[in-house]
Amino acid sequence: MLKSFLALSLLPGPLFVPAALAAETPTPTDWQLLSRESNAEALSALHLAAGYGLPEWTRMLLAQGAELRLDASGWSPLHLAARNGHCQTLELLLKAHPRLVNQAARNGQTPLQLAVMHHQTQAVSCLLKQGAQPDLADQHGVTPVLQAVLQSQDEMLEHMARNGFAVNSWLQRARPDGRSWLHVLAVLPEMAEPLQLLIRRGVPLQSRFKGQSALLLALEAGYFENVQALLEAGDQVNNAEEAGRLWLALEKYLREDVLQKPAQRALLARLIQTLLRYQDGIIQSPRDQTSLLARRILEGDVLAVDFLLGFGPDLEVRNARNQTFLMLAIAESVPQQGVLVARLLEAGARTDIADEAGNTPLHLAVKRGQADIVRLLLPRVERLSSNAAGQTPLDLARMQGDAELMEELRPLYIRSLFQ
Fold it and tell me: How far, in Å, CA of 392 to CA of 413, rounded?
């Protein structure tokens, strides 16, 4: 009999094993031997009986003093019974060893955590009634209750609550390091559903960790799905300083794969509208080239510039050199320059504003020899004006010997003579 068991237990879990074992009628000597022996993987008869749910085998082996040892993989019979949902076997094991209800596997996981992980509701009830603790963490800091959250098992949490564990209170308390569970999950990938579950369970959106909201952490981590889940739960911006940090984190989403998706574009717009209540100038102020719009112009990002222009930024504001966005787009070597200038003009950018040297956008375009930009500007320029050095754009073209630009500017020059 013993040789038969050891041979079968070496196999990787064939389905006929429990039937074969259950059909055996071990002798008293067999029971004594089975209660003590294990195979090369430290798998005992009690492991097998617990894992396959054989209550009679479990009872007899326990009667012979079989211990709840860990096998080579780090699991005890309790873990196997809990993982597979064998409640009757679990009850027998716990009756014989009640103090091991929270027995930790080699990785720190308790039988309760395994039962939760494998959606074994009845096993969870059995373990909770025997005193299993839902707040014991494994080596990765995951507890049974957090395991249910990570797997979006709201029904399992309800089950824990019905069995006496204060689920919501535990989730709502800040961790010892000051973070809420929202903060913890916000920086993990694909946590939208668990985050929504936490919010439904009353974990406060307004909690801060070192002044940071979960929304900010999700934005900085670059997990758009998490951002969406948190944003849909409501406004989480408390002040202008926080809004400023969110602005900086927001820029990574001004990219093609996000802006071309209507749902994500709409969500991004909602976030920006929220932030505009706190810092209405940060989209448009080109001061020191730090604003969203200024950076996207300098990157030549037409799609993002179009998106930001949709919020109606003030295009007349100026940076430290008295430049507007239109001037910035013309004065720098910007990719997609012609398209960007056209977009800014269509959005209402003025052509009659001068920088600190008295140069208008037309002066700047002529200086750089940008004939295509000059053609875009000319229909919106009423007259030739002089800069601080007394030079008109035509003067600059003449000084540069640019016959093409001189020809382009001549009609405007003639028109200016009669104004």
Answer: 9
Contact 398, 407 (CB under 8 A): no
pLDDT tens figures, 17-48:
444 455 556 656 555 555 555 555 557 888 88
Closest by alpha carbon to 142, among 190, 108, 101? 108
The DSSP 8-state label assigned to residue 175 in this structure reads P
In this structure, what is the dihedral angle of CA atoms 277, 278, 279, 280, given to the nearest 10 degrees? 20
Task: Say which residue the tokens 């909690």 belong to.
Answer: 207
pLDDT in tens, 343-398: 999 999 999 999 999 999 999 999 999 999 999 999 999 999 999 999 999 999 99
List of domains in the chain: 1-167 (1.25.40.20), 351-419 (1.25.40.20)
179-197 pLDDT tens trace: 999 999 999 999 999 999 9
Long-range contacts of 405-413 (CB under 8 A, 24+ apart): 405/366, 405/369, 405/371, 405/374, 408/371, 408/374, 408/375, 408/378, 409/366, 409/374, 409/378, 409/384, 412/378, 412/381, 412/383, 412/384, 413/384
How many residues can be counted in the chain?
419
Distance separating alpha carbons of residues 274 and 268, to the nearest angstrom: 10
Give the CA distances from residue 229 to residues 116, 122, 276, 337, in Å, rounded to whole numbers and listed in that order: 24, 31, 20, 37
Dist. CA 295–CA 282, nearest whole Å: 11
Provide the greatest CA pair distance for the chain.
121
Name every residue whose Cβ is closer than 8 Å to that of residue 331 and which is 6 or more positions away in sequence: 323, 364, 368
Q: What CA–CA distance (Å, rounded) separates 64 from 46?
A: 11
Q: Quote the CA–CA distance of 79 and 92 in Å, as a whole number.
A: 13
| Residue-wise DSSP of 80-147 | HHHHHT-HHHHHHHHHH-GGGTT---TTS--HHHHHHHTT-HHHHHHHHHTT--TT---TTS--HHHH
Q: What is the pLDDT, as a whole number, of residue 36? A: 58
The closest of 130, 99, 105, 100 to 117, measured between CA atoms, is 105
Q: What is the pLDDT of residue 3?
A: 46
